[in-house]
């Protein structure tokens, strides 16, 4: 037996009530969407951040083992030197306009204190030009810390990272790494990696056999929309949001014949780029997109890429 529910009919009073309730709800949401006003920084202030990860020097010197000591040890453990793994903590001191804002020691990671010391510290400071002095000491036995100093212009509500001159630190900066990767993704210097077949291969429904070769088209894989949404867009963040496999991102080829200079080339790329950007504000001076051109096995810009120097560190340059 089925039972029909009575039909609910809304009269003018219910409709008016419903409209009033919706309006009240919208006003409630609208008000609290902007009230009370939230500012992450006090007005007229910028944020100074110090962020590093750095292995300190070993805390003690290695000790030379004597011949008697070595003779008593099992043969596979006879290392000539006895070295403790414990590292020095990293002492960081930041001064802004000769006022010390932080002077702290950061412990090395790991049970044996043999890992890198990591530090993160932030503070709002008044916007404007400041004299910034940073000192690091990563060796318990060293007398003086390594100072780095410079003037920085901190615009209101901006959050620049505390600069660092140490190439080892620069080489590990995540965003710089992402910028270099995104550049190599969009413009792989070697656009394809060829291989000669040693035996027959079934590839995408095709059967290929020696003496034919196959070619992995780096430039095409690097622009596959399924892997890289909006593939033509220069967006370094994609390398921070996701880790790509060696089959998805391979500017240095892959397998046994992968580029042996890859680590050196990326290190150099980062240091050169960071050094340029620290000393100059550059601007693209090409009115149109520069076309790529093949030069033997590598690709490069057909006409070079002209840049304009907008500003040198601390002084305005003629455009
Ligand atoms: C951004 C710079 C560079 C790029 C994009 C690059 C890219 C490549 C690529 C795609 C290959 C072929 C890999 C393969 O077949 O799987 C290759 C091979 C090679 N690269 Fe590089 N390379 C760069 C810099 C360097 C540097 C600086 C050196 C030397 C210090 C170097 C030395 C070599 C050598 C010796 C090979 C041949 C490896 C072999 O066949 O076993 N490359 N490189």
What secondary-structure arrangement, pairings included, does this model have?
Blueprint: H1 12-34, E1 45-54, E2 63-64, H2 67-72, E3 81-82, E4 90-96, E5 99-106, E6 117-126, E7 128-137, E8 146-154, H3 167-170, H4 174-186, E9 193-196, E10 201-203, E11 206-208, E12 213-216, H5 218-221, H6 238-241, H7 262-279, E13 280-284, E14 292-295, E15 298-301, E16 307-312, E17 315-316
Antiparallel strand pairs: 1-6, 2-3, 4-5, 4-7, 7-8, 9-12, 10-11, 13-16, 14-15, 16-17
The structure holds protoporphyrin IX containing FE.
Low-confidence runs of at least 5 consecutive residues: 158-162, 314-319
Terminal-residue CA separation: 88 Å
The amount of beta strand, in percent, is: 25-35%
For the biggest β-sheet, the strand order reads 5-4-7-8
Domain count: the total is 2
Query: In sequence order, what are the helices and strands, one letter per element?
Result: HEEHEEEEEEHHEEEEHHHEEEEE
Decide which structural class fits the backbone.
Answer: alpha+beta
The CATH topology of the largest domain is given as Immunoglobulin-like
Radius of gyration: 30 Å
**CATH architecture tag of the largest domain:** Sandwich
Shape: extended
Please tell me the overall pLDDT.
85
CATH class of the largest domain: Mainly Beta
Count every helix, treating DSSP H or I runs of 4 or more residues as helices. Answer: 7
Oligomer: single chain
What's the story with the biggest beta sheet?
A: 4 strands, antiparallel
Q: Tell me the number of strands.
A: 17
Percentage of helical residues? 10-25%
Which cofactor or ligand species appear? protoporphyrin IX containing FE
């Amino acid at each position: 037996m089925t039972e029909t529910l009575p039909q609910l009919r809304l009269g003018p009073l219910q409709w008016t009530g419903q409209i009033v309730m919706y309006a009240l709800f919208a006003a409630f949401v609208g008000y609290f969407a902007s009230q009370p006003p939230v500012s992450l920084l006090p007005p007229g202030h910028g944020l100074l951040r110090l962020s590093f990860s750095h292995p300190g020097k070993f805390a003690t010197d290695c000790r030379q083992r004597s011949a008697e000591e070595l003779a008593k040890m099992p043969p596979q453990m006879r290392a000539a030197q006895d070295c403790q793994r414990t590292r020095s903590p990293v002492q960081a001191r930041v001064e802004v306009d000769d006022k010390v804002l932080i002077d702290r020691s950061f412990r090395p990671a790991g049970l044996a204190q043999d890992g890198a010391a990591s530090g993160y510290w932030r503070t709002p400071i008044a916007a404007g030009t400041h004299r910034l002095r940073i000192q690091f000491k990563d060796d318990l036995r060293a007398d003086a810390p390594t100072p780095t100093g410079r003037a920085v212009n901190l615009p209101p509500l901006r959050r620049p990272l505390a600069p660092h001159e140490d190439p080892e630190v620069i080489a590990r900066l995540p965003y710089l790494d992402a910028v270099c990767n995104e550049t190599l993704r969009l413009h792989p210097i070697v656009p394809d990696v060829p291989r000669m077949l040693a035996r027959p291969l079934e590839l995408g429904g095709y059967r290929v056999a020696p003496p034919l070769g196959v070619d992995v088209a780096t430039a095409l894989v690097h622009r596959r929309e399924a892997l890289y949404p909006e593939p033509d867009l220069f967006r370094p963040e994609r390398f921070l949001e996701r880790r790509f496999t060696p089959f998805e991102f391979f500017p240095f080829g892959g397998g046994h014949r992968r580029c042996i200079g890859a680590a050196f080339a990326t290190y150099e790329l980062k240091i050169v780029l960071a050094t340029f950007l620290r000393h100059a504000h550059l601007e693209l001076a090409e009115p149109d997109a520069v076309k790529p051109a093949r030069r033997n096995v590598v690709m490069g810009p057909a006409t070079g890429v002209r840049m304009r120097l907008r500003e040198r560190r601390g002084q305005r340059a003629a455009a």
